[in-house]
């Protein structure tokens, strides 16, 4: 067997936010054009997934996100033609609530606007989804999937790496 480079998927988080039967989404500029996504993004060095989803939701919606449940772990592989990139994403999705937009905040770079869509409206524009995980997370939320936040454990070494010796 020939040794190959180690598989390194991109770890991301997503916020699934529902209010009155509508889901908060972002419209964002991507190399593939203007797409719809749950408020989402990459986990940064030193962050727990819960810290990351709170930060990403705030940056992309200008609203404070309060995680209430863990929806699950989602994986998807994409061939991005605009960048000739083959990437696998591991998405940790959380459901929760938000307040109103925070005065003085601006949307993250690349985010054009936020919008509230029903599950049916979201399903009707699948060609505009950043990934198939957008609708799957909403469908799982609608179906009532809720896991405790404690299902996602973050060791203290995220803040200060362990020294092996």
From TrEMBL:
<dbReference type="Pfam" id="PF00293">
    <property type="entry name" value="NUDIX"/>
</dbReference>
<dbReference type="InterPro" id="IPR000086">
    <property type="entry name" value="NUDIX_hydrolase_dom"/>
</dbReference>
<protein>
    <submittedName>
        <fullName>NUDIX domain-containing protein</fullName>
    </submittedName>
</protein>
<dbReference type="InterPro" id="IPR015797">
    <property type="entry name" value="NUDIX_hydrolase-like_dom_sf"/>
</dbReference>
<feature type="domain" description="Nudix hydrolase">
    <location>
        <begin position="6"/>
        <end position="140"/>
    </location>
</feature>
């Amino acid at each position: 067997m020939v040794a190959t480079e180690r598989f390194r998927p991109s770890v991301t988080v997503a916020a699934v936010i529902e209010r009155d039967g509508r889901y908060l989404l972002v419209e964002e500029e991507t190399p593939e054009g203007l797409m719809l996504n749950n408020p989402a993004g990459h986990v940064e060095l030193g962050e727990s997934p819960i810290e990351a989803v709170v930060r990403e939701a705030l940056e992309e919606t200008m609203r404070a996100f309060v995680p209430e449940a863990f929806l699950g772990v989602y994986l998807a592989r994409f061939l991005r033609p605009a960048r000739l990139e083959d990437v696998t994403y591991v998405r940790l999705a959380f459901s929760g609530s938000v307040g109103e937009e925070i005065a003085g905040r601006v949307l993250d770079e690349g985010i054009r606007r936020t919008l509230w869509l029903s599950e049916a409206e979201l399903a009707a524009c699948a060609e505009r989804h950043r990934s198939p995980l957008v609708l799957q997370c909403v469908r799982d939320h609608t179906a009532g999937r809720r896991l405790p936040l404690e299902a996602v454990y973050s060791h203290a070494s995220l803040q200060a790496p362990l020294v092996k010796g």
